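Quick one: structure tokens for this chain, please?
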Amino acid sequence: MPETLFELRGVSLTYRALPVLREIDWALRAGEQWAVLGPNGAGKTSLARILARQVSHIGGDFQRAETLAHRGVGYVCFEQQKTLCDRDRKLDDSETRNNAFDPGTTVAQALLGNQPATDAFQNWIERLRMEHILHRGLRFISTGEMRKTLLVKALLAEPAVLILDSPLDGLDLAAQEQMGTILADLLQSPMAVLLLCRDLQDIPPGISHVLALNEGRILRSGIAEDVLADPEVVAIMQPPLPELSALPPQSPRPYSLPEAEPLLRLRQVHVQYGDTPVLDQVDWTFERGQHCHVIGPNGCGKTTLLSLITGDNHKAYGQDIELFGRRRGSGESVWEIKEKFGQVDTALHLNHVRGMKALEVVISGFFDSIGLYDDWGERQRALAQHWLRALGLQAFERQAFDDLSFGIQRMVLLARAMVKSPAILLLDEPCLGLDAHHRTLVLRAIDHIAANSDTQIIYVSHSEGQVPACINQRLSFQPGEKNYRVTQNTVTGSTTR
């Protein structure tokens, strides 16, 4: 009989007094390649954390093979990115440096520590085309580049079992093709691979077995083709969509917008870090009534561009940038800029303050705070409740934000971004980490907002994929000789207000 690497008998896990896994009976044996399938909130991450020994307070019996005591388990997930970046932020000593810039832990340091580079290290760096980011700080690489870094770090440890949480998430099309090839090779290797998947189409051909979870319980387990053909499994991956309702009245704005001028205008913008040019001669005009798709591969400069218009990047000073009819650096405060934006991105999602109810998270959008520290009244409560109803989220109003599925959390953050009726709704990879059902919820909600309010959308993604139907402008980052060229064009056939 093949060696049993993991065996769970009646394993249950409770988080914040709520069960997240219930009576799990399952075993992973050497020679098997498994995928754990389920929608957002099914319990996939909780199971992975048990296997990686990141959780100890479980009920039932959990056995691990002796092999794992020597070679261990590698686990690649988004939470690792947050942990590494949070550590670097705490140790940041920019204020004491002559150049006021602390790169923090570089990619090379994260992968090697104080050890010399090995042949295996060089092989993975070349294969994933990571040479250009080795000396960048972890806080200054893209989501896709961080995903590659975490994978290489796990592989260099040569684990007996490798757990990958949605390994293609956050990668541009070229990187997805690279990762797909690597994943196919890993599934043919002696290493046991466990994939966490949110969609039926995410399961590659090399997977031999599937464990389908729903609401913390095993729905079906066994040979991949049998589980994937089960009508009940298909049904839980494609649930019905909740009803949307009318948007609330516009929240009072403490500012006016230029009627005859574009909201944003950038002319010949150039940004360089050290010897590396990131943006070069960028022109972009964002007119009234436009909804823009900003698209480009990992590491092309999208995040840098966004930081220029939201007031987060000091390199905007001295450049020809107009924000809401006013030249950047003409006396406006960062908060005067930020009050005009509603924002949803992965960093906001991962950094939310724990212990808040969904309604409180939405109310915090009035104050642009991570957490709720200001006094609020019935007007804010009523508007927040109206936004939850408008997006089909009224059932979650009193639930703890931490207890909601990842996809519903993202929808709540969308309501949070909209309560103050921002001039621009800035969405940076808003569908990252979502299953097909919740991607549809988010895209449908964005179009609902675009069609029924004067808020304009900037939608950022690393590849074409699914985008809102309202998009009528595209800003594309395309490879040039030394960096990326940025081009602007109009998209026809889209719906606008």
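Confidence is low (pLDDT under 50) at residues 493-497.
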